[in-house]
Design goal:
The chain is an alpha/beta fold and 461 residues long. The chain contains 15 helices and 19 strands.
């Protein structure tokens, strides 16, 4: 009987089978940040344990960091304490830390792939649900809780129940103005935020095959918003080309030898899944959310559904049956582990070049890492954004969540390229509408919810 991609990677990492559904799973790469690690390090101290495999562990500061004046002390007391605690713990335990000022600092799910720390066929974890992002390279990657962070630090293994397997296939070419973010928002709108609960999703089909690796990262990032444990895409030549020359790509093995193994990482034709769903790319338009979870989204030209949850509509101050086109917004955020990579910035810059943001809109672009920031500056993207009226800031999670200084004011709307639109996610009373970098850029220019296709020339895609 054939194996799925998940089976192939999972089986290779089973240290011990506890029962029919539970395994001791070896973890190849452990990413650490300041939010979920303090209690885990404290547990190690209490038990007198070291970090078992330091070379498999890397830390960065991202959630609590400011995105302005990062050379100065952090102003928010709680944020400062979180980052200072990470620095102290990494120093005490000998863990590599990419803190503020380090050329590799950035959002944990951006730096892993771009530095070559994430590879096909590995298992990777982090105390952050969006660790699923790394699955775009053909890795089994998932978020873990604080107690599991401690377990991984101490043993480099986790006791895990084998997840169910789901395949989501999308076939065909995407239309004008439709991006990977729109694809995953569309899927969420169709199967809901519980449609993949307890499953690990493999994204398959010609649409994902045609996507760039960074586009696949956006999709895998938001697999969590479908209720999944994680998402992954089978590695292919695009994956190999993306990884070539990355900083921490293993030097002791020839790349061709690595690729020989990576090329075995695909679901066999005879493999079976617990659940399968198929969509066609031609059915997907630019998307935007209207409610308070990522599954409450619509095609941008559609009306808010009549059956939309009343509580969500009240919080968002929108009405069932209405179109969102032309609705005034006050904030635009382009960034987060979902959409803060160089391709995202290039896409947004291509639309705003030569245009100006609406006077009432506070628009921010936050690169996902120091590497992305450096490349954006070299390409002159920072100047394009600043000329258009955007703030081009320093790397961090920023306005994705209200854990730093970049909060959305109460009652104001923010068109955001992040992954969650929960009540208060971007600040107390903030109203978040999830969209692609392209749609977000268009809304910043007009100051209202806008169909980006109306601003694009025939040549633009």
């Amino acid at each position: 009987m054939g194996k799925t991609l998940l089976d192939k990677i999972w089986d290779k990492h089973v240290v011990k089978q506890i029962d029919a559904v539970t395994d001791v799973l070896y973890i190849d790469r452990h990413f650490v940040h300041e939010v979920t690690s303090p209690q885990a390090f404290s547990e190690l101290k209490e038990k007198g344990l070291p970090v078992f495999r330091i070379n498999n562990t890397v830390a960065t500061a991202d959630h609590n960091v400011p995105t302005k004046d990062q050379h100065l002390p952090i102003q928010e007391a709680l944020s400062r304490k979180q980052v200072d605690t990470l620095i102290a713990n990494c120093k005490e335990f000998g863990v590599e830390l990419y803190g503020l000022g380090h050329p590799f600092q950035g959002i944990v799910h951006v730096i892993g792939p771009e530095l070559g720390l994430t590879l096909p066929g590995i298992t990777a974890v982090c105390g952050d649900s969006h660790t699923s992002t790394h699955g775009a390279l053909g890795a089994v990657a998932f978020g873990i809780g604080t107690s599991q962070v401690a377990q991984t630090l101490a043993a480099q293994c986790l006791i895990m129940k084998r997840p169910k397997k789901m395949r989501i296939s999308v076939n065909g070419s995407l239309g004008k103005g439709v991006t990977p973010k729109d694809v995953i928002l569309y899927i969420a709108s169709q199967i809901s935020t519980s449609g993949a609960t307890d499953h690990f999703i493999e994204f398959a089909g010609t649409t994902f095959e045609a996507m760039s690796i960074e586009g696949r990262m956006t999709v895998c990032n938001m697999s969590i918003e479908l209720g999944a444990r994680g998402g992954l895409v089978a590695p292919d030549q695009k994956t190999f080309d993306y990884l070539k020359g990355r900083k921490f790509l293993p030097k002791d093995q020839d790349l061709e030898q690595l690729q020989a193994y990576w090329k075995t990482l695909y679901s066999d034709n005879e493999a079976t899944f617990d659940k399968e769903v198929t969509f066609h790319a031609s059915d997907i338009d630019p998307m935007i959310t209207y409610g308070t979870n990522p599954g409450l989204g619509i095609k941008i030209q559609d009306q808010v559904p009549l059956e939309a949850p009343k509580k969500s509509l009240e919080y968002m101050a929108v009405e069932a049956g209405q179109s969102l086109i032309g609705k005034r917004i006050e904030n635009v955020f382009i960034g987060s582990c979902t959409n803060a990579r160089i391709e995202d910035l290039r896409l947004a810059a291509s639309l705003v070049k030569g245009r100006t943001t609406a006077p009432h809109v506070n628009a921010m672009v936050i690169p996902g890492s120091k590497q992305v920031e450096k490349q954006a500056i070299e390409e002159g993207l920072d100047k394009i954004f600043e000329a258009a009226g955007f703030q081009f800031r320093q790397p961090g999670c920023s306005a994705c969540l209200g854990m730093n200084e970049d909060k959305v004011p109460k009652g104001e709307y923010c068109v955001s390229t992040s992954n969650r639109n929960f009540e208060g996610r971007q600040g107390v009373g903030a109203r978040t509408m999830l969209a692609s970098p392209l749609t977000a850029a268009a809304c910043a220019i007009t100051g209202t919810i806008t169909d980006v296709r109306e601003m694009m020339s025939y040549e633009e895609v």
